[in-house]
Amino acid sequence: MNNRSGTNKTAAFDSRKISLKSLTPYIFIGPALIALIMLVIYPLCYGVFISFFKTNLSNKWDFVALKNYISIFSDKTFISQIWVTLKFTFLVVAAHFVIGVLLGMVLNQKKAGITFFRAVLVLPWLFPEVVVALIFKWIMNPLYGLVNNYLLDAGLINDHISWLGDTRFAFIAVVLVCIWKGYPLVMVNVLAGLQSVSEDIYEAAKMDGANKVQTFFRIVLPSIKPVLTTTLVLDTVWWFKHYTIVYLLTKGGPGSDTSIISIEIYKQAFEYFNFGKAAAMSVIVFFICLVISKLYRRFLDNEE
C-alpha cells in the first residue's frame, strides 16, 4: 500500500516537473512577445482600423470604408510626394552604400591608428537626429552660416544663398545631410562582414592571379552578400519613412520640393486632424516598404 502511494507521488511529481519544463520556453519568450504585441502588432492593427473611419480619436467615429484610400490615390499631390520620397530614398541609400563600402574596405586594413578612424567615422550615426538637423541648419543659414561665409571668402559666390529655402538647392542640401547622418550604418555592417571573410580566400585569389578589382567583385562581395542584403533593406525602409531631419530642416519646403510622405502624414494627423486619412497613408507606406523589401530579396536571391 505504501509502495503504491509512493509510486503515485513520484508520478505526480514527475508530471509536474515535465509540465514546468514544457512551460519554460514560454516563460522566457513571454516578456518579449508581450512587448512585441503592445509596441508593434497592436499599433499596426489599430492604425489599419482607424484608416476606415473619419475620426477625432475621441467621440467622433464615422465609418467611411475605403473613402480615405480613394481620396488619397485620387490626389495628385500624394503621388508627387511618393515620387519625391522615392528620389530622396534612392539618392540617400545609394550614397550610403558607395561611401559605406569604400570606408569599410579602408577600415578593414591592419594599419596603425585605424581604430581611431573607426571611432571617428561612426560618430554621425551616434548623434541624435535633432542635433544633426539643428547643426546643419545653423551651418547652412543664409546670413551667418559657415557655408556661405567660406564660399564668399573664397570668391565662389557673390551673395548669400538660402541653401534650405531656395528651390535649386533645398532638396540636394537635405539629401547631403541625410547621407552624412546615415553612412556609418552601412560602413559598420560592411566592416563586420569583411572581417568575417577568411584570409585564406584572399591568398587563394592572389595565387590564382586575380587582381584587387576581380577579388573584390568576384570573391569579397559574394561573401558578404547576406550582410549587404539585410543592410540594404533596413537602410531603404529607414529612410523611406524618415521624418525628423527633413522636417526640422525645411518642413517640406520650399513649396513641396522636400515634401516627403512622412511629413504629409504628420500634417494630416496633427495639423489638419484627419487621423483616418493619416492612418490610411501610413498603411500605404507600410505596404510600399514591404513590397520594396520583397523585391530586393527576390532580385538578389535570383542573382545567385
TrEMBL record:
GO terms for biological process: transmembrane transport. One of its GO terms (cellular component) is plasma membrane. InterPro entries: ABC_transporter_permease, MetI-like, MetI-like_sf. Residues 82-296 form the ABC transmembrane type-1 domain. The chain crosses the membrane at residues 26-53, 88-107, 119-140, 169-194, 215-240, 278-296. It is found in: Cell membrane. It comes from the Bacteria. It holds the Pfam family BPD_transp_1. Belongs to the binding-protein-dependent transport system permease family. This is ABC-type sugar transport system, permease component. It comes from Ruminiclostridium cellobioparum subsp. termitidis CT1112.
